[in-house]
Fold this protein.
Amino acid sequence: PPAHSHSDWIGPPDKHSNLRPIIFYVPPEESALEWRLREARQEAQASNQRFWALHNRAFRQEKEEFIYSRLKAKGVEMRDESGQKATLNAEEMADFYKDFLSKNLKKHLQYNRDWYKRNFRITFLMGQVALVRALRWLRQRKKNIEQ
Amino acid sequence: GLFVWRLRNTGVQQIPYRFVPLYHIANDRLITFQYFNFLKRMYVTQYNKDLSQRAKPKSDSIESPFHEPQQLDQGKKVAHKISPLSPVHQSWSETASRNELREMKSAAETEDSVIPVGAESKEDRQWKEMKLRLDDLPGILARLSKIKLTALVVSTASAGFAMAPVPFELTCFLLASLGTGLASCAANSINQFIEVPFDSNMNRTKNRPLVRGQISPLLAVCFAASCGVPGIALLTLGVNPLTGALGAFNIFLYTCCYTPLKRMSIANTWVGAVVGAIPPVMGWTAATGSLDAGALLLGGILYSWQFPHFNALSWGLREDYSRGGYCMMSVTHPGLCRRVALRHCLALIGLSAVAPVLDITTWTFPLISLPINLYISYLGFRFYRDADRSSSRKLFFCSLWHLPMLLLVMFTCKKSVLEKEDKGDLPGRSRERAMEIRLP
């Protein structure tokens, strides 16, 4: 993002986590409240990134392993004559999906709780910051009018 | 065709009101269907029973809202998916592909991502400033509130209103529709607000405004509040408290029960079906002011419809659900998924037969609706037996036209209020009288 910009910038989705990273703008006179908000957003971003990058990687890996083991059981090579990767159809993959979901359910429940808490906290802080800014702006206007 | 469909169908997901967006598919039947859909959105108030010209607003599926359902915003297909379609075009005739492109273009215009092919993927790779532009705002809010799904929800509510055995009041009808629409916008916005990281990871939903950072979460919540509060107030004060209460309850059910439950247990599907069933009940209570058997029947029909619709849809999304951590029957209990879909297809037949018993429609309704109900049950049975992609697709597409058709037939078979009162009169005369009273 350009140096003169006064807003946050959001980027393309990350390769592993599919989440879009945000570069937060740090205003020259950041109040304590604004600092808390930025910290909370950065922390949430980092934590989400960690979770999903790991999770998606695990998914891809386990999917590969599953395909490999099933293909081996069927006696099929990983790549056929034309060099194309052999895949299983949707019905065969269904077992894997079911397994993967049940294995990760607890992890998801934990993540959900954390995410909900973080999301609400961030939004609440945003509300507070917006309110403070609005009041400040009103006070500034009153001062300008009085002058 | 299959390839096209698969691309379109990525990430059909939970649907707030388990409605799926209009599919633009280069299939003659479906192209005319789409056009038919748009026509049906208009009210043709020609009160002539024989012609049955009164086109009811169709409640078709656009994935959806109140239940977006999880899947609901269906593969409106992100524009960048259109580029891979070019190899498929070679197998089609010139005109077919041109039609297709035209359809897709018009579809793209009404889609979430309005950007032409190619440009979107490039833009996607760039860093964007997170500043709200006022001229983008209407589009962003439309996507945030899942406006198309909301439109469908409002049309099911209107269907409920129209089926109520009371003389039609325009102001009440408009207030009820507006209130329901606002409530739906609010619920959908909150749903998107809650699900940002999950939406980012699913193909169908990764282009939503909050995921792309086009709007801040705070603004999303404020928008939801500014839709929900006036919406419910409008329903409570402008229509009647019962409708307002149902609206508020539905918002609660969708945002606080269905949305978290999606990631905890498969029970979310049943809760979501209730969410989808409530709008027609709201329409009915708006018209009559009370919760009668007719309202419950209409709700029951919509409740049962949700299952074949959603279960068939979710069959193709198992990978995304599994990775995203959503607990859906199609992933965890596939047998149950298909059984439930079939069960509810059959239930639709039963419910249609109950309608005349409750004096809502004449006996012609179960007879006329029998063919379409049998057809969807047949597809439900095929889905149950075959459990493959093609049968799930067939069932899903059938559900898209089945519901509007059923509601339309129901409306045309509606038992006139006056017919019930003056039973002795000749049919012609009572119709005349009906016309006099109903037209303003």
Observations:
- Chain B touches chain A at residues 124-131, 193-194, 196-197, 200-201, 206, 211-213, 216-218, 221, 260, 263-264, 316, 318-319, 321-323, 325, 327, 331-332, 334, 387-389 (CB under 8 Å).
- Chain B has a mean pLDDT of 75.
